[in-house]
Amino acid sequence: MDEISINLNIADRPYRLTVLREEEERVRKAAAIINDRIKTYAQNYAYKDRQDLLAMAALQYATSSLQFESEVMFRDNHLTQKLTELDQLLANHLKL
Question: Which residue among 40, 69, 79, 81 is the one 20 to 30 A from 31 at the CA level?
Fold first, then answer.
């Protein structure tokens, strides 16, 4: 596993991280998305400090993650059900 050290700024604070080389682009993109969201919140809402903005960004992304997990679980269950039905149809057809 090829790891590299990268420097990121999130909410005007520097962070030095060690990541897998193949994950660097994704981590940098995630940091950029967080900074964009913080900037949007700062322009549209009253806040006391950056912690408020970070909390709102974290809440938004956690909510989105939970929604995505719920949708994936529903699709997986639905797919499993349909595959079971298809398997039963094929088994019945082959018995003829």
Answer: 69
CB 3 within 8 Å of CB 20: yes
The H or E element containing residue 42 is helix 24-44
Model confidence over 68-88: pLDDT tens digits? Answer: 999 999 999 999 999 999 999
Structural domain for 71, as ranges? 3-95
> At 96, which amino acid appears?
L
What's the gap between Cα 41 and its chain centre? Answer: 19
Q: Contact, 3 vs 23, CB < 8 A?
A: no
Side chain identity, residue 13: R
> pLDDT tens across 6-16, in order?
999 999 999 99
Closest CA to 55 of 42, 73, 43, 69: 42
Is this prediction's pTM over 0.90?
Answer: no
